[in-house]
Amino acid sequence: MVAIDSFAFYSHSQVSIVILVALLVCLIPTTIGALLSAIGIAGMDRLVQRNVLAMSGRAVEVAGDVQTLLLDKTGMITQGNRMASAFYPLGEVTEQELAEAAQLASLADETPEGRSIVVLAKERFNIRERDLGSRYNFVPFTARTRMSGIDLDCRMVRKGATDAVKNWVLSLGGTVSEELDEISDRLAREGRTPLAVSDGDRLLGVVELKDTIKQGIREKFEELRALGIRTVMITGDNPLTAAAIASEAGVDDFMAEATSEAKMALILK
C-alpha cells in the first residue's frame, strides 16, 4: 500500500481510498494462504524441537483432532533393549543343556535379544560359537510363526513365544508340561518376556528377557490423558506381560500378541 502511494506521488497521480481498499480486499485471500503455510512450517519446526517429525503442515493441523494415540511398546514405552537374564530348565533338563540349545537357536539371530542369549550362555557356561559344518539351515523369525531357530543334522531347535513353541512341539508328537505355563505366567506377571526353547519334540525350558520402562513415561501419559487423548500400547508380547507393562507405564489400553496385520487393522479402525 505504501509503495502504491509512493508511485502515485512520483507520477503526479492520485489514488483514491476506494481503490486502495479494493486492492486490500483482493490481496486478503493470497495473504491468508501464505500465512497458513507459514503457520504450518512454524508448527513443524516446534515439533522437531521436541523430537517429533511431522511430514506436512496438514499433519500438524490434523494432530489437533487426535483422540487416540497408538504406541509400539518396544522403543516407545520401554528402552527397547530386552536382554536375556536367566535360564529356567524344565523337569530333568539341566540349565546348561537349555543354555546350549538356546545359544544354538540364536547364532543367526542379530537382534539384541538373540545376541544377549549368546552372551549369557557364554558368561554362565563358557559356551562359545561353534563350527556348524555345512549341514544346517537357519530358520528366521516371522510374525506368523513367532519362532526362530536352526535345523542341524537331525535336530530342529526352536525358540520363541511360549504358545508358538508349544504348538510346534505338539505338532511333532511331543508333550507339554504344566511347568512351562507356570514359569511363563510367573515371568509375564512380573513384566518379563518368556521365550520357550525346544529341541525337536522335547521342550527344554524358558529364557527370561528383561526390559525397562522409560523414565517419566507415566507422567507423560497422565498429561495426554488430561488433554483428552487416550493411549493404547501395541505389542507382540503375551497378554500377561502386556498387562504388567501397561499397568506400570500407565497406558489406557493395550493390544497383546499383535501381528503386523493386526496393528494395521487397529490403525485403520
From TrEMBL:
Q: Which SUPFAM superfamilies match?
A: Calcium ATPase, transmembrane domain M, HAD-like, Metal cation-transporting ATPase, ATP-binding domain N
Question: By its UniProt entry, which InterPro entries does this protein fall under?
Answer: ATPase_P-typ_cyto_dom_N (IPR023299), ATPase_P-typ_TM_dom_sf (IPR023298), HAD-like_sf (IPR036412), HAD_sf (IPR023214), P-type_ATPase_bsu_IA (IPR006391)
Entry keyword annotation includes Aminoacyl-tRNA synthetase: no
Q: What is this protein called?
A: ATPase, P-type (Transporting), HAD superfamily, subfamily IC
Name the lineage: Bacteria, Bacillati, Actinomycetota, Acidimicrobiia, Acidimicrobiales
- PANTHER family cross-referenced by the UniProt entry: POTASSIUM-TRANSPORTING ATPASE ATP-BINDING SUBUNIT
Keyword list (alphabetical) reads: ATP-binding, Cell membrane, Ion transport, Magnesium, Membrane, Metal-binding, Nucleotide-binding, Phosphoprotein, Potassium, Potassium transport, Translocase, Transmembrane, Transmembrane helix, Transport
Answer whether the UniProt record assigns the keyword Nucleotide-binding to this protein: yes
- Provenance organism: Ferrithrix thermotolerans DSM 19514
- What is one GO cellular-component annotation here? membrane
User: Tell me, what is one Gene Ontology molecular-function annotation carried by this entry?
Assistant: ATP binding
Q: Tell me the leader sequence span.
A: none
Q: Where in the cell is it found?
A: Membrane
Q: Transmembrane stretches, by residue range?
A: 15-41
Gene3D superfamilies, per the entry: Calcium-transporting ATPase, cytoplasmic domain N, HAD superfamily/HAD-like
What's a Pfam family in this record?
A: Hydrolase
